[in-house]
Amino acid sequence: MKLITAAHLLTLIIGVCGDVYLHNPRGSNNKLSEQQNNAQNQQRLFDSQNNAAGGYQIGDNCKPVCQDANQNYDATVPGAMQGAMTYYQGSELYFEWVVQHGCGVGQNNVICQMILQYMCASDNPGIRDGTKRGNQNTAGGEQEPPDPTDAAAQELGQHESIEFYLDCKKRERNKGLYTADQNMNNNQGATATRQNPNGNNNANQRNGLECPEERDYYPYWHPTPWHDIAILTSEPVSRCEYYKNESQNVKAKGYCSKAEFNNPKTCEQGSGEWKEKDAWNQPAPECIGGMSSRDNHNGNARGGNPQYYLWKIPDYVEGRCVFRLRYNITTGDFRQTALANVKGPVTEDRTVEDFFSVDSSLNDPNPGDRRRSIFAGGPPILSQDPIADWLDLGDEYRLQLQVNTNQYGRTFQDRSHSFYVSKRPESVPENARIVNYNVRGRRGNIVQVYPSVEYDFVPQELTVEQGDYLHFQWTGSDANAKGNDGNGRQGTDRSNLVQVQNSEENVPLPLKKHTLLFDANSNPDDEEGKRLVQKFAYLDQGSVAPCDKDENNQNAKDNCKQLNGASGYFDGGLVMMKQIGTHLVASTRNNDFSNRSQKAKIKVKPRSLQALEVALLLLGLTALAASVAYVTTAVYAFRRPTSWLFSKRYRKFFPFRCIGKERLQRQVDLRKEWKQKERLRWEAFLEADSMAKTKSDGLWEAGSKRNSLQHGEADTKDKEQGQGGMADASKPALEYRFCCRCLRAVGLAGGQRLTMLCLLVLNLAAFCHGFIMHIDLGFEGSLAYPFAKGAGFALDMDLAILLLPTLKSLQTSLRGKGGRAGEWLPIDDPISFHIVCAMLVGVNSAIHIVAHILHMITITSAPPIEKDPLGLFRLSDTEQVSGASIGVQLASRAHITGILVTGLMCVMYLTALPSIRRATCCIARRCGGFRLFQRTHSLWPLVYILLLAHASHRFWIWMFFPFVFVAADRMILTQRRRYPAVLKSARLLMFDVIHLTFEVPEHFTYQAGQYIMLFWRGEWHPFTLTSAPEENQLTVHIRATDSMDWCSALRRHLTQEVPAEASGMAKPSGSVAPGTIVEYNKLELPNGTICCKAKPNSMSTEGGTSSSDKVSLDLTLTGRQDGSDSKEAVRRAKTDESESLFGGATDAPMPPGCVQLQLQGPFGAPAQRVWEFQTVMVVGAGIGVTPFVSILRSVQMRMQQQELLYASQGKSRADYELKSNQRTARSERLHGMAPPAADSFLQSDVQRDFELHSRKPRIRHEVAHGMHDSGSASESSRPRPDVLGSRALGSDLGSRLPGMPATPTSSLAAKVAEASATSGGASLLDQLVRNVIPVPKAIHFYWMVRNQQELDWFYDLLATAKQGPAQNRVEVNLFTTGEAELSSVKKLACVDHQYFGRPSWGRIFKGCKEKHKGEHIGVFLCGSPVIGVELARQSERNSDPPDLGENRTRFTFFKENF
Question: How far apart are the first and last CA of the chain?
Fold first, then answer.
């Protein structure tokens, strides 16, 4: 009956005298103790198919030798054939073998499998080697079928049980197997196979008690007594999963209660019961690709080393066992595409490529009739010794192929002599490593022992750790052929072990230099070590037989010098390796220079910590560190009883009682005394503050909530905390080319074009460099690896650059340094540059990750290569990882850190999305919005630490200079003061905008357009200053709609909660009306903390809602107010009493109605560069007008300062206006980004004088405020421009000039006077004024608002700008983009042009270009990025080409970002 199963398709094996020989443990090849080189009975235990000369006789343990007086083997001597090896559970046993026809991955001549198996007494209690010599010692006896009584004879060896064999003989053979053209004997059951076609018809055909069908096919489909250890195959990818799943280790095997049936169907039809034998419930066998070895040269593998496999003996293996090695080889002629497989009607119908598909359908229907016949195609695929005109040269050129069809699919095997497995000694820890150290080989020269080998240690090169155990043990036979060459007594195997100085020498080391078994140098009196040296060198010969030191007869038993008095079996026991180093050993008997060598190397290295030990060590170190910290904290708390650690709440956690009650009580009393003093101080402070209060007369007015500034007026989250709300802008023209839009998308439109372009080029260059360097280094030439490395090289560069745009302090220091640096340094748009770098990081990371994943898949799909624990094969990196699973590959340091970095970066990218950062969705608001963005980005140091651990040394080189810059930035940031912010007033404007006014901290110097960082409630946020540097106050405008968590909380706190606390009122539930003003006073707490206290009942609601800071055009000579910025306050702000830039606030208690704020800065921004241009276009959208508010204020002040300088020399501006207007356009050199260069007089003397004194403390000149509570200004109260000269500065030139000392020195006044008095002095004076106090000649101001109500924010400022000295230079253009009714529109006197709808930027730029031909025009934006795209496009479009030279008109675009 044909058995249908996948397993029967396996193992079609090529025939040509292939052999496999097991060297360690000693392979028997059916030998027992025959005193000759060939096995006497090749059928004794199994069918090896090997050469009879292979194999090793069984080991002996006679005392001293199993020979008679004639040196013939004597099996009657006690110990004969009893030299079985004993291994311990958990020990490492090295199997060694050679195969004649090669095997392994990359061996292209054959397709093979090496199958390692074992069987123990638990599977067959009758396992034994037998003692009967001769050729009548076949297992089971000499009858067929074998008689159970004969099989039970102890002198006969036995591996498989007789029951197993009888069932095999009864069971019908698997008729679904491919048998080619062999005549199969169907009467012999499963003993008939293609390799054994006649079956076991008689005892002469039987090989022990093995089942031929089970031997020839793996995995077998019926139960087998053999347990699988490993499969080494040349096709691990396509075969291993099948082998592991079909192994009896994990899969139950079926059989019929009536042995003659071989499948469930026939079993039931024959009234039998189909049963299953349980799986062994052991791990599936390891299946890997074998190491490739050559054919036809005894099968040595790479480097001339034998094939080997390390088996760690499991704890469930015990008792007497035997090891089986099966060598299956097949040919590619069975593949569908093979030449032998394409002819004939049957073979042409095959659709399956795999040779596993070859089955009985391809059998010869007339077997045996086609021997040496003309080949005409299958079936079979190839007949016996086929003849054909294979070359198509003609019939006269026929050739015969050497094909033996019963070997065209062949199994070889070798088995060890039986050995024992016992439990490890109780004195050896369970986790201790035990390595079996053995000897292989037999007596004779290479010709006499071939295909066995001469003597050698196994393993020959071994590396262990200090504390590991070596089990020194070997066995030999006394039945070697008498004529075989060798040393010592004829026919005997003996080996000892001595240490030598180096592998080139042969003289043993003296005892005093011994290092292996004991350290003679450090412990020369170690008696146990000396005993071991003597035992291993002399093999305990004195205890076995008497020795004669004068005997020199090589065959004399008492010639102990040649180890003749030793037994063939030696067990040196377990020896712990203690001495670190490389130890070389040899055998004095067999190490016969120029004949044979028996040397080895044992390397002992320091013990490595196990995972549990590492965990315990870390735990111990942590506990130690915690203990030290605990003790240190306890000592600190005790010595400083005023600290919070010594409070009653925490004092109980420290063991203070051990120091004595009296000492402890003294410290407690000191704390009580200190607390009493502090209580009195606070009571006095609060009492004084309470007396200063005035009763509240007004009622708290609850206003309705104002509509938020929405509808597309969002700026970046950083900016929007203070500005937000931008008007929509024109979208780029649809007709603009796609490639240009792509370039603008990556930052190549507008400023820093050269920087962005260079960055892209550098990325491409880095990618190509990395790709080319690793083009041939990928696994099996995979291109995924060089792609990953190329992207990695680019990532190294991008990650190094990514940090630079975030260094605010360095950017601020670089701003205004002059030259054309702004064209290529991204200091004016660092956020965009940072985003571009982040995009490049994202793109390169995606390439890097995807390429590595593809490379890992390539590795996983490759055949796994046999492990090389001894390092004999010198596996390449590719071979070591070949076939490794994804999980194993991910376990490496690089992959673990890479996964962590990827996760953190993904979180950063996600939280940087506008919807998350601006908290425009409900999920983002619940998760923290901007706070979440800020906190995730604060993890960047962790990311770079992981990157340093992830990458190679190349990344360390890349990061050197960026880390230097980061350190420099942090140093500058540390030096930059953190000031306690003294709030003077908080005013609520329309649309939830708050106007905050602060006192100017001492030594706080800034420029118009710069911004500060404001700290409150643990967070720092940036806001542009709306005040001018020439004023004596700082102002900011903050858009604080309810959608902005931090800003809205600050608005409610300053305008509602704090005033209510100060007035003793309940916390308000509603909102206050626009126009509400809350005044604050500075308050210094007893602990030195500076805070701001709301004036009781100071909250008032004005009739207007505008920002009512009136800019006075009058300057007075008064000093700066510095009461709020005492040196002590600044010191506290800089020291640990304040917080770092991203730290939290102090926990000092504050009285009701107080708020504590801090500020830091100033920090540079692009808007501060307006002074570098003669003509500027400033564009503000919504609250984005804030930087230009400061600029317009400063313009008024600078114009007045120029008037004062002219007046000091008896001149007026009018004297120079006409000349100035008649001047031609400045040269291209003066149109650069730097301030225009002056002559040597100005540069060398005046400017140097300014710089020399710019670091001195300056006396500010108070700028009169026209802050009218009514919100309207009296025209009569404002000073007129014609009276400015009445406040002449005299010789001091007392006004504070940007870039020059507030109180100019006499040398400066002299220079001014000299410039006025010299020939052409008027022109020189004009140049001096314009270069020292630069003011643009034309300012085109464009403000886009949703409706006219938003103008109330800065209407007074605009009105002042149009009425002050700069009225002829400032052109105000207002665009109302929202819906408006014309009847409600008011004509604004301060606005030059008022429009409804969005600006037509193309028309505006064209008109500006016509009006300012030949000039370099600066375009500044603070608003939506959409507007920035259009402005950048128009700036580029309307700029003249460079070939026009100095007369060309060009626009340079700057946009505001935080």
Answer: 84
